[in-house]
Amino acid sequence: MGLELYMDLLSAPCRAVYIFARKNGIPFNFQFVDLLKGHHHSKEYIEINPLRKLPSLKDGKFILSESVAILSYLCRKYSAPSHWYPPDLHTRARVDEFMAWQHTAIQLPMSKMLWIKLLIPMITGEEVSAEKMEQILEEVNNNLQLFEEKFLQDRMFITGDHISLADLVALVEMMQPMGGNYNVFLNSPKLAEWRMRVELTIGSGLFWEAHDRLVKLAEWDCSTLDPRVKERICEFLQKFK
């Protein structure tokens, strides 16, 4: 059946894999796994990925999970242009350094922003307290400042003059709050300019195609939500009371 990618483009890691594959002309079959309907908990999907997470890759009999591992695999198998994952020891190490840091410093707070701005109020009917909201905003802003000072500095892209996997992963994660109509780029001209450079390098058409499901999330009928997902969100709300 060829390469299969199991994804839901609400997920930032899925968007990174989708954009990378499309940008580099990698042929694949898109297997949609609806996170909001709990399809990642289905028996069929658990056979693909017992971790019940997205994305997943299936290449013949070979199955791989975790988006960073999938991106590296695609780079190597399809001989993607070297700027994505540079061969120079120190430059590649910078990509690896960001990938290791971003899981808790970028991915987690950006996901929290989507939950508190949109998903929790939409699904539970309750607002997160102003105090907790401020705490999360402070975490987001502090980590964005660290990103600018440590990783971006005065460069065009994280590794220099060319886009890499680090830029792609960083931007799709920072876009996550857009689903809740919150733009993290408004307070930093440097960050906004970098965001636009990455988008234009990817191609605006592909970039916004990948984000279409996210930016339309506010229109979603939450009555179709899987009960297990709703239970998780209600549990998540308790942490912010």
What does this entry look like structurally?
- The chain is α+β, with helices and mostly antiparallel strands.
- The chain is 56% helix and 7% strand.
- The chain is built from 9 helices and 4 strands; from the N terminus they run E-H-E-H-E-E-H-H-H-H-H-H-H.
- Strand 1, helix 1 (12-23) and strand 2 (29-32) form a beta-alpha-beta unit.
- It is globular.
Note the topology.
Layout: E1 3-7, H1 12-23, E2 29-32, H2 43-48, E3 56-59, E4 62-65, H3 67-77, H4 89-124, H5 130-152, H6 165-174, H7 189-202, H8 204-215, H9 227-238
Parallel strand pairs: 1-2
Antiparallel strand pairs: 1-3, 3-4
Helix pairs in contact: 1-3, 1-6, 1-8, 4-5, 4-6, 4-9
Characteristic key phrases:
241 residues, four-stranded mixed beta sheet, 9 helices, 4 strands
Listing every helix as H and every strand as E from the N terminus to the C terminus, the arrangement reads EHEHEEHHHHHHH
Distance between the termini: 48 Å
Q: Spatial order of the strands in the main sheet?
A: 2-1-3-4
Q: Let me know the number of strands.
A: 4
Strand content: 5-15%
**Count of individual helical segments:** 9
Spans of at least 5 consecutive residues with low confidence = none
